[in-house]
Design a protein that fits this description.
Jelly Rolls; Phage tail protein beta-alpha-beta fold; 3 domains; 13-stranded mixed sheet; 9 helices; 34% strand; Ferrdict_sens_TM; transmembrane helix; transmembrane; FecR; Anti-sigma factor
């Protein structure tokens, strides 16, 4: 049996097809093989997917059922069983089985097409969270951040909404772009790793690209393309944009438990510490605006960081009032 699996009429034998399906179940497909299977599916469904599937969620469930049946059949027999299963798969993807189709028509009569449920993840100050999106992309949320996304992405775009800071590792898919929206901007990618920081209580927004390429759009401005190790800064007050080359470690260390201060003013460092440790830090002297320091801390406690700051700035003192409140007093020796 010969299967036509691409727009370029690349022909593949039943044996080749069997190998690809088996590799898919074990998560061993390379990008080229994924593209071949995806192209096959798109081609087979092009004319009748509206009649076969209620929505994307239903489509994914059917696919999972098919692949599980294939593996189950493979365990029973390797020869004739595969011919039957391969034939079953083609029929299912092309016109749908009688059972599915009948069930679908009944569902259409009794209910309207459903809209994907919106899910959300939220991280309080002092914590972080790593999780996987429905398409397999990985997200790490920083302290005080929230993200919203559909339970199942639709068949044209992958879109999430972010408030706060997150690092994304996007699963590559050239046909379905991935978009991250914040209150200030929209970032569009195909497959890459990048960081977005846009807290409601902070004036500066930053999009930092680690690998790949992204397009960042701000209302009223042309989209800006970023290459690796570049960052786009947006000032909410002045509505100004700045693109600059940066050291990735200075901005992405948070996801690995690293707090970095590079000649940073104490007033802005306090904001980081408050989010990181979920505490309120009170500064007794306004003069601290011009007090700056440098330091790198990995998995360090708040007390250790404060000890280091006051060791360098000998006229500063700190007092831990409670687990949620700290006071810094004295004078800064620049």
């Amino acid at each position: 049996m010969i299967l036509v699996l691409s727009n370029r009429n690349h022909k593949m034998t039943e044996k080749d097809f069997k190998i690809l399906i088996s590799k898919k179940q074990r998560g061993l497909l390379n990008k080229k093989e994924e593209a071949i299977l995806f192209s096959f599916e798109k081609k087979m469904l092009a004319k009748n997917r509206k009649d076969i599937f209620l929505n994307e969620k239903h489509k994914l469930k059917i696919q999972q059922d098919i692949y599980s049946k294939i593996i189950h059949t493979k365990q029973k027999t390797i020869s004739s069983g595969w011919i039957k299963v391969a034939g079953f798969l083609i029929v299912a993807l092309t016109i749908g089985s009688v059972g599915w189709y009948t069930s679908l028509q009944s569902d259409k009569v009794n209910s309207k097409q459903t809209v994907a449920k919106i899910l959300s993840k939220e991280v309080s100050y002092g914590k972080k969270l790593t999780f996987i999106l429905p398409d397999g992309s990985r997200v790490k949320l920083n302290s005080g951040s929230k993200i919203k996304y559909p339970e199942v992405f639709n068949d044209s775009i992958r879109e999430v909404t972010l408030s706060g800071e997150a690092f994304f590792e996007i699963k590559e898919d050239s046909l379905f772009p991935f978009i991250v929206k914040t209150a200030s901007l929209s970032t569009r990618v195909l497959g890459t790793t990048f960081n977005i920081k846009d807290y409601e209580d902070e004036n500066e927004v930053a999009v930092t690209l680690a690998t790949g390429k992204i397009s960042v759009g701000v209302k009223g401005e042309e989209n800006i393309i970023l290459s690796p190790s570049y960052q786009l800064n947006f000032n909410k007050s002045t509505q100004s944009l700045k693109k600059q080359k940066i050291n990735l470690d200075d901005f992405l260390g948070w996801k690995d438990g690293i707090l970095r201060f590079d000649n940073e003013k104490l007033s802005t460092a306090v904001i980081k510490l408050e989010k990181w440790f979920n505490v309120k830090i009170k500064l007794q002297n306004k003069q601290y605006e011009n007090c700056s320091f440098t330091g790198v801390f990995k998995d360090a406690s708040l007390e250790r960081i404060l000890e280091n700051i006051t060791f360098v700035k000998t006229n500063l003192k700190y007092k831990i009032i409670s687990s949620e409140e700290v006071e810094i007093s004295g004078f800064c020796n620049n």
